[in-house]
Design goal:
Layout: E1 5-8, E2 11-21, E3 39-44, H1 47-53, E4 64-71, E5 74-82, E6 93-96, E7 101-110, E8 115-116, H2 130-134, E9 137-138, E10 140-141, E11 149-158, E12 162-164, E13 174-184, E14 189-198, E15 206-212, E16 221-222, H3 228-231, E17 241-244, E18 248-249, E19 253-254, E20 268-276, E21 297-303, E22 311-316, E23 324-332, E24 338-346, E25 355-357
Parallel strand pairs: 14-19, 14-23
Antiparallel strand pairs: 1-2, 2-3, 2-13, 3-6, 4-5, 4-7, 7-11, 8-10, 9-16, 12-13, 14-20, 15-17, 15-18, 15-21, 21-22, 23-24, 24-25
Length: 359
């Protein structure tokens, strides 16, 4: 029996192999699991992949994992595991009726310790209900080795689709032939900013400061997705959020309207991996402000060169969506004109459209 844990760029795929041992049970609406009257499904997760992921990439690694399963309004199973444990399978018992097709709701939470709550901890327990899980929120992130991730998935489990299992200490159990796959996502947005100077610009521009104006900040966010109506009820913070406080000298040159103008590799890195809470309002273009004052706006403080006049540019961002990455590329010419490329996509690489503005 094997669970395969693959981590791809912007998502985590968790495949579950399930084991079942036979018993008897009533219909779902009368179902009251007992040791004598249940079918036990065991979820197997191989820790080898989880352990290997820890030091490689903060955005992909998994340090801890909780899985909750619900059948109707009853908890059918629960498991909590640390990725640093021995690299052997662990098992989650699921109690289901003996025969037929049964809908099971799974809630998965990874890296819970990275979330900051008002009392500086997220206190998850084995007995939590779907309502309690849906209500989990956080006010920020710890600076750790991973990011919080989540999944919610409903699967129809065919208890009759089984094969014999020969795993040690699981004699009399049977392997469910069905595979269940979860997609783990991050409950935050990611922002990166890059800058270059136009080819032929003699001076090296300076970007002194970048901040997210207070209207685009939020006091908290939920772990599990919420509607725009719910997100609109979350107030912004009182102060701007500084994203860059140290001057960056722009030395790389890019020619406008060329292929390199849309490649971040040809720009100086200015801000990398700033994680932002969701904002349900946004602009349709960088120079077309949202009608809502609580949309996300970047203020960029820059100069054309050492000791030259300080200027301010404002970049109006689209909605800040969970598990999406916004890349902003700024091209500065000798007259101080900026050409801004930005786009929003899944946490992955993508092409960027071209926009320009003057200051």
């Amino acid at each position: 029996m094997q669970t395969i844990h693959y981590i791809y760029k912007n998502l985590v795929l968790l495949t579950i192999a399930t084991i079942v041992c036979a018993s008897c049970q009533q219909e779902a609406d009368e179902w009251m699991p007992t040791r004598e009257k249940s079918v036990t499904l065991e979820l197997s997760v191989i820790l080898t992949d989880l352990t290997r992921a820890i030091p490689t990439n903060t955005e992909r690694s998994i340090n801890s994992l909780r899985v909750y399963a619900f059948y109707g309004n009853k908890q059918a199973g629960y498991i909590h595991r640390e990725a640093t444990a021995a690299d052997t399978p662990f098992y989650m018992d699921l109690e289901l009726p003996e025969h037929g097709l049964h809908k099971v709701d799974f809630y998965i939470i990874a890296n819970e310790a990275e979330m900051v709550s008002p009392n500086n901890s997220i206190n998850l327990t084995a007995e939590m209900t779907p309502t309690e899980l849906e209500a989990i929120y956080f006010i920020g992130l710890h600076t750790g080795t991973s990011l919080p991730m989540y999944a919610k998935h409903t699967a129809e489990i065919d208890v009759d689709a089984i094969t014999s299992n020969t795993a040690t200490n699981h004699e009399g159990h049977f392997l469910l032939t069905q595979k269940i796959t979860f997609k783990l996502e991050r409950p935050i947005a990611k922002l990166s900013v890059y800058a270059a100077k136009s080819t032929g610009t003699e001076s090296n521009p300076k970007i002194h400061k970048i901040e997210l104006l207070s209207g685009g900040t939020r006091q908290y966010n939920y772990l599990y997705p919420k509607s725009d109506e719910v997100l609109q009820g979350i107030p912004p913070r009182a102060n701007n959020r500084e994203l860059l406080g140290t001057t960056v000298t722009i030395s790389k040159e890019v020619t406008k309207d060329t292929e390199e103008a849309t490649s971040t590799a040809d720009y100086n890195e200015v801000v990398l991996g700033q994680y932002l809470l969701e904002v349900p309002y946004g602009a349709t273009a960088w120079d077309n402000p949202s009608s809502n004052e609580q949309a996300a706006i970047l203020r960029v403080e820059y100069a054309l060169g050492e000791g030259m006049e300080i200027r301010n540019a404002y970049i109006h961002l689209p909605k800040l969506q969970r598990n999406h990455h916004i890349k902003v590329c700024i091209l500065i010419n000798a007259e101080g004109q900026m050409i801004v490329n930005y786009d929003v996509a899944d946490w992955d690489d993508y092409a960027m459209p071209d926009y320009s503005f003057d200051y």
